[in-house]
Specification:
single chain, about 60 residues, rod-shaped
Length: about 60
C-alpha cells in the first residue's frame, strides 16, 4: 500500500500582513469619512483631503 502524500497549499508570505494592512486602511478611511469639519480641523486635515483619502480603494 502506498503512503498518501500530504498536499501543501502555498500562500505568499506577505498575504497575512497585506490583509491586515488592507483591513487597517479600510477601517481608518471609514472612520475618517465620518469626521465632521471640527474634528478634521483638530487633526489638521481639510475636508477635501479627507474626502480624497476616504475614497481611495483599500488596496492603494
Amino acid at each position: 500500500m502506498q503512503a498518501l502524500a500530504l498536499k501543501t497549499v502555498q500562500i505568499p508570505a506577505f498575504s497575512v500582513n497585506m490583509v491586515a494592512t488592507w483591513a487597517r486602511r479600510f477601517n481608518t478611511r471609514a472612520a475618517l469619512a465620518k469626521l465632521d469639519n471640527t474634528a478634521l480641523e483638530d487633526i489638521g486635515v481639510s475636508y477635501r483631503q479627507a474626502l480624497k483619502e476616504a475614497n481611495k480603494p483599500f488596496w492603494l
